[in-house]
Amino acid sequence: MTSGNRFRIEERGPAQVALIGVIDENADLTTLPAMAQRGMLQLDLGGVTFINSLGVRDWIRLQAAAQAARVSLELCNVAEPIIHQLNMIIATRGTAKVTSFFAPYACDNCGREDSLIVDAVAHAATLARGQAPAMVCKECGAAMAFNDFPERYLAFLQRD
Ligand SMILES: [Zn+2]
Fold first, then answer.
1. Does pTM surpass 0.70?
2. Of 43, 53, 109, 139, which residue has the fewest beta carbons closer than 10 angstroms?
């Protein structure tokens, strides 16, 4: 494993931290709830490259610890590996609010595949209908298609 994959927590501002690298048994998430301010903590998950089963266990513990401490977690730029866990294991969602996330798109015109950031707040109405917002291809300007099953990939946004 290269040092680039090593897990680290970077403070980005008051109550704003970024999680970077692999979330596994070496990733310590227990310090996070204490970094909240006024009951809020924003986690930027754009730099998470992988999460294994032990990382998922610690992630669920983080959700429980945050709820016990009355800390609201806001997840932004949620990377695709985390989205897959949120979809498979309900407990990983906790009460965290996802404000933006990465999603796979593909261009039928030029073949480009991209992981694009979806603003879950701006596109709330579209997403609530189980639809992926339209995206434009950076390569050729054509409309990109969602490159997964929306009802499966967007399942984590459903409450109850
Ligand atoms: Zn294209």
1. yes
2. 53
